[in-house]
Amino acid sequence: MILSGWGRYPSLDCPVFQARHEDDVRRLVDGRVSVIARGAGRAYGDAALNADGVLSALPMNRFLAFDPVAGALTCEAGVALDDILDTFVPRGWFPMVVPGLRAATVGGALAADVHGKNHHRDGCFGDHTLWLDLLTADGGVTRCGPDRESRLFRATRGGMGLTGVILRAAIRLRRIETAVIRQETLRLADLDSGLDALEASDDWTYNVAWIDCRASGKGFGRSVLTRGEHARVEELPRALRADPLRRSPPRLGTVPCDLPPILALNAVAARLFNEAYFRASRPGEALIGLDRFFFPLDGLSAWNRLYGRAGLLQHQCVLPRASARAGLRALLNRIAATDCRPLLAVLKRMGPRRGGFLSFPIDGHSLALDFPVSPASFALCDDLDAIVADCGGRLYLAKDARMSAATMRKGYPELEQFAEARAAWDADGRFRSRQSERLGL
Amino acid sequence: MSGPPLALIVGATSDIARAVALRWAAMGWSLILAGRDMALLERDAEDLRLRHGVSVATRRIDALDTASFPAFVAGLPGLPDVVVCLVGALEDQRCAEADGAVAERLMRGNFIGPALLLGEIAHRMAARGSGVVIGVSSVAGDRGRAANYVYGSAKAGFSAFLSGLRARMSRCGLRVVTIKPGFVRTRMTEGMALPRFLTAEADEVARVIADAPTRGRDVVYAPGIWRLVMFVIRALPETLFKRLRL
Ligand SMILES: Cc1cc2nc3c(=O)[nH]c(=O)nc-3n(C[C@H](O)[C@H](O)[C@H](O)COP(=O)(O)OP(=O)(O)OC[C@H]3O[C@@H](n4cnc5c(N)ncnc54)[C@H](O)[C@@H]3O)c2cc1C
Ligand SMILES: NC(=O)c1ccc[n+]([C@@H]2O[C@H](COP(=O)([O-])OP(=O)(O)OC[C@H]3O[C@@H](n4cnc5c(N)ncnc54)[C@H](OP(=O)(O)O)[C@@H]3O)[C@@H](O)[C@H]2O)c1
């Protein structure tokens, strides 16, 4: 079966096996030279591809237990965040950390140790995981967490499936009173004021900024910052108070097919989109549904087809606080000097690092860009990599489809510890992906 | 009727069955999951309880053990309003050609067991005067193909049984529905090369099954395109059909 990640670059013919139960996983892992687990396939690049075998965890999607006192949910790894929201939002619970899409599975969220708009306060998905059960190369199952087998846990969260197959996990949910976010929107005229505002927003639970990569000159790096808090019941208009936990996710439809190259998103579309976005973002306060706040792109299914058959590249880096300002300026300048325009450029604050060996966030700022696949965008991304490396930053594995092994080594100083832990559990490197081979992991 | 409807799902560990159970649980129905693997059934039951807060019981049944059926039905928490049987066994046709025991197992697992069980339950429903009986047969039962006729003949027997049961029970206030899925991507067909555009996902077929109690149809192809496909295949003259490699 021809598989790819969300960016649809690269694609690879992979035998796919459906894992319904632990026994299926063990049988499949036993019988293969190498294998990689796959969740919803929403990582952009080649993290969940392997020509020897891909093990789909999607059929393992049962809830196993819920402890309402601790807010602890135990579930199988193929459970999608969407399932958790459907079931638990109406009961007043919400995951501590959510990435920008509902389709991601618990296994995928742990393997990438995903972050949300609240990393500066709450850290990564793995920081709210009480334990996980990992099926390792010898077929055994080991329960690991912050307080047991912690080295294996640190290698597995953020470890991109390279230590084994996550079977199930216990994660903590937070209490919410409503399915509504109290949002404040600010327009910032240039890069410095945007960064100042973002840094001054650490008291808010959720923060994210969108940067216009087009604007040059005076408006260089202009941005729209949105900050949010879970709304309390008394903050809702009277009409909504009767049923405060009701969701109303926007459904815009599905992109039916690949756009032909002439229509596919290009620099012109990017410019129009960015102008429209900037104008449409009205400064001020608003109450909006949590789906719109957290998962703005989910309303339009299969939107990756907008980029045409060639696919899209995501480039997400994080720069340490000290060099972030200069670094971001250099990145934006470099982009402005080309014809490649990201449609979306998203800026987030990252809090202190405390995750797994390969968890992405470090204290600083993260910038995520997407480009249609083309020779020019590959060249641009290589240049961006060099700037990131000079600043002491790193790239996010869940978004990566193309960085070099050298870039990876420079960005992840704890790679050594990761490799040691992995070798202790999987000496022959049974768990491998196209990404891990590209990066020499 | 007081309280939510009670549905019995036989063969509940099937991929299609699980999708049916999720749909009925989302509608608030009470469920009984029956199958061979109690540990799995119990896990699925807990998942349904956590998701939808419905009451779910589990029961053991082996479709080959027909002698156990009366006790199985008597031991249910109640006589269900709806029963669906998804028990199905697919084994390598070539083994069935060479080994009569394999062929017999296919016939018992796909025809005798499911037919006798649904017959037993329908009989009791008739005494009550209400109920919906859903049998999941297959398009494979519409015409015996060289590649798959042992399974196909068993499904043909099951379809014929359901047809007669429907006619008999229509006078007793019961509805009997025959579902005929085409190719479905499930554990049963994993690893087989299936034609992409004619292969449905388990949940598409589950939706048809889950809607069957409220819709008035007797024989439902799932997806509907198979009604046309099988019409054509049934219309082929035998002299031609036997030469086709179907
Ligand atoms: C629109 C969009 C927005 C996004 N926003 C964010 C964001 O805000 N923050 C963020 O951090 N990320 C974000 N992402 C990235 C996404 O959250 C991650 O890639 C996540 O891993 C996707 O989960 P998945 O189930 O699709 O995993 P997959 O893409 O299927 O797999 C990702 C990795 O996890 C491994 N894996 C999956 N399941 C298992 C398992 N059971 N056991 C072991 N390893 C496993 C795979 O081997 C692979 O290495 C976004 C992606 C998209 C498409
Ligand atoms: N998949 C297709 O392409 C397709 C096409 C047409 C019709 N169908 C029919 O659809 C139904 C559901 O099948 P599926 O595709 O969902 O396949 P599946 O996942 O393999 O389900 C088959 C089910 O039958 C059960 N079963 C088999 N023998 C049994 C026995 N002796 N006693 C009790 N249970 C038994 C299995 O239980 P265990 O878990 O214990 O093995 C399993 O629950 C079957 O009737 C099948 O014939 C399927």
UniProtKB/TrEMBL annotation, chain A:
One term of GO molecular function: FAD binding
Transmembrane parts of this sequence: none
Coiled coil: none
Family annotation (SUPFAM superfamilies): FAD-binding/transporter-associated domain-like (SSF56176)
Domain of life per record: Bacteria
Key words of the record: FAD, Flavoprotein
Pfam families given in the database record: FAD_binding_4
Domain FAD-binding PCMH-type: 9-176
Keyword flag Kinase: no
Gene3D superfamilies to which the protein is assigned, alphabetical: 3.30.465.10
InterPro entries in alphabetical order: FAD-bd_PCMH, FAD-bd_PCMH-like_sf, FAD-bd_PCMH_sub2, FAD_lactone_oxidase-like, Oxid_FAD_bind_N
Protein's recorded name: FAD-binding oxidoreductase
TrEMBL record, chain B:
GO CC annotation: membrane
Family: Belongs to the short-chain dehydrogenases/reductases (SDR) family.
InterPro entries xref list: NAD(P)-bd_dom_sf, SDR_fam
Cited SUPFAM superfamilies: NAD(P)-binding Rossmann-fold domains
Pfam family, one: adh_short
GO molecular function, one term: oxidoreductase activity
Signal peptide range: none
Keyword annotations of the record: Oxidoreductase
Name of protein: SDR family oxidoreductase
Highest rank taxon of the organism: Bacteria
Keyword hit for Ribosomal protein: no
